[in-house]
Amino acid sequence: MILFLFLLISMLISCSEPFNNNGDLLPDLKPPELNKIELTDNRTLTLDFSEPVSFDDSTFFSEPDLSLESWDSAGNRLTIHFSDEQIPGKMYKCRSDVLDEKGNRLSFLIRFYGWNQNLPDMIINEFNPEGSGNNPDTVELYVAGEGNTAGAALFLGTSKHFTSYFVLPSLEVSPGDFIIVHLRPEGLPEEINESGSKSVSGGKLASDLAWDIWADEDMPLSGSNGLISLYTNPFGSIIDAVPYSNRVTADSEEYRGWTAATFDMIEELSFLEVWNGTDGFIRPEDAVYSEGTTGTRSICRDSVSTDSDMRTDWHIVPTGEKSFGEVNSDNVYAP
């Protein structure tokens, strides 16, 4: 009986409104929280909050400028309509205030990237995580459909757990095209992001047969154990991913075989369900095997870019058979 009364009292206290020491009801002074940002078209931004809000449009500011047309609020969602179309892939910064039903104010500053309704089908096709010398770390994308790459984001990790990421510039592409993302630029004048011609750029591993794109900063891949993923934009949905490892589950019981640095990335990838794992988890044995890769022994898909979200889609090529900007080699490295 004593235990029952204790549990009942605990439930009543936890479910009740907050009171001060005199038994007076305390006012609600907690502002709303912003939980999610989403674009639904090139003129509309939706914001999900922890409670219903009203929008103080007099506080709205954006850079570049977006003119407000209207807004509406339903439940915990605020929908903002712009009179201007967003520039695909362009980064916008917006500041504004919202108020909850008690008048508590939240001032927020957000970033988002302009809606791109013409994003092509793309997959990660080749990479060399142990790059060096004249063969620095590089990721190749294979284009399977026509479109524009503006705003797509390449993460070393996932969008929530990453070491770095790069937002692709505007680039009109066609089926069969290759995009080489150079992750370790040297700041040379010939390292040019191509858009009109595939033969403009120079630099290490540049190709006249592919579109060369250079990261804004140094983005080294994570050696023998890591994850590369591609998203529609930095805050968007995942398009493709490839985990790689030379470990086994027994290497670390605490992290299911992964290193501490990669564990959270892999856990999120398991949740996103874009890679086939074991019993709902992705273990090192489920990832692409990376032992033996070098700067010239890249990790790649087969020559037809098979994509079944499994380690069997991938292999390490023999020395000197890296193929950035061209159809992948089907030859397999033998230690």
Name of the CATH first level of the largest domain: Mainly Beta
Number of helices: 2
- Portion in strands: 25-35%
The radius of gyration over CA amounts to: 25 Å
Contiguous runs where pLDDT drops below 50 for at least 5 residues: 1-17
CATH fold-level assignment of the largest domain: Immunoglobulin-like
Task: Describe it.
The chain contains two helices and 20 strands. The protein is mainly beta. The chain has two domains: 34-113, Immunoglobulin-like; 122-316, Immunoglobulin-like. The strands form five sheets. The protein has a six-stranded mixed β-sheet with strand order 15-14-9-8-19-20, with no helix packed on it. The relative contact order is 0.11. Residues 1-17 have low confidence and may be disordered.
Question: Summary?
Answer:
With 335 residues, this protein is mostly beta strands.
Name its key features.
mainly beta; Immunoglobulin-like; five-stranded mixed sheet; 2 helices; 20 strands; globular; disordered N terminus
Secondary-structure map:
Layout: H1 2-15, E1 34-41, E2 44-49, E3 54-63, E4 68-74, E5 77-82, E6 91-99, E7 105-113, E8 122-127, E9 138-143, E10 147-148, E11 153-157, E12 162-167, E13 172-173, E14 178-182, E15 211-214, E16 226-231, E17 238-245, H2 260-272, E18 288-289, E19 299-301, E20 314-316
Parallel strand pairs: 14-15, 17-18
Antiparallel strand pairs: 1-2, 2-5, 3-6, 4-5, 6-7, 8-9, 8-19, 9-14, 10-13, 11-12, 11-16, 16-17, 19-20
